[in-house]
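Our preliminary data section would be incomplete without showing what the modeling component actually yields. Below, a chain of 376 amino acids is followed by its predicted structure, encoded as tokens that our downstream tools consume directly.
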Amino acid sequence: MKKYFMPPEWAPHRLTLLAWPDNRETWPGDRLNRVEQVYANILQALVPYEEVVILTSCPEAHQAASAMIQNRGLDWNRIRLLRVPVNDVWIRDYGPVTLFEKQEPADTSATPATSGGNQKVTWKPVMANWGYNAWGGKYPPWDDDDRVPEQLAGLLGYPFIEPGMILEGGSIDVNGAGTLLTTESVLLNPNRNPALNRQQIEEKLRNWLGVDQIIWLKKGLRGDDTDGHIDDLARFVSKDTIMATVCHDRADPNYDLLQENLEILYRAHDLDGQPFKILELPLPATRIDGTTVDGSDYVPASYANFYIANGCVLVPTYDQRYDEQVLNLFRPLFQGRRIIGIPCKNLVWGQGSIHCITCQVPQTIPQKILFEGYIS
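Predicted structure:
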């Protein structure tokens, strides 16, 4: 019997969380203005489909966000600005992971069934703070970011829990049917949880996220300063289908690691013993002119860094050779959701993309999951 459950990203959202960019170390010079335009494009695409809460860390960021919303003519009834201190924009990693906690009825004979079958339980949303240390202490300070989950739980009215482990949201992906994707290069890295071994980490993931099996990929993209987040490599788009980043250029430094990850995915099976359907996403150009702030001449540009919202899927675009091909790959997978490409070269220069700067707050567990009985 599972006590906690993490819904897949395509479950209905209450809202999306963002943090407005203002860190001049991440976005030096006119790069901050350029990335603000990317944020505006994301908001313009997202706001018609769900509400958005934007964290602003200072009066200047608050004013900049307000001006952009006003200039784009966005619906203020769908947007809320909250003055919450943050160190940077990567709220996927330091923001709250919203879970559902099982509530057993005190009197089962008098409580109507709500989860299907004979189980008479309800599921209450809670916000989890897994702990955050800026990807192994790479970018101090991170104390404001680390406090965000607890602050948001209070502001948005959620119970707050602490599983007692450092875990970034971009390092995990779930299918809502018992399987989780992650990477060894992040979760087994001693710069995160040196006191925990692989077995202990798996136990925490199972207990707190409601999963039964964990598929471990190996390494992440060149230029990914997170040490290799899964949301640049492979993502579930349904309980039995995975989109995986591939590279066909043997001279590319990402070729071997992506091939190794792909082979693991093709060997993987779901809880019923069935192989997953694997859809291959081409790797866009990742080498840049010059270097990023941390000295890398590569960025983790990946089409796998998409975001599934209530009525749309936001897909980062980078490379004219592949952009339209990738958007067409998404369309039959999400019928009923609009597929929207967002140019993200300026965003990924900061070493993250759309999924990295968004964080969903789910509304409910889909009835299909409840009635399939997996979490009963």
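The first strand starts at residue 4 and ends at 5. Residues 4-372 form a domain with the L-arginine/glycine Amidinotransferase; Chain A fold (CATH 3.75.10.10). Preliminary results of this kind motivate Aim 1 of the renewal.
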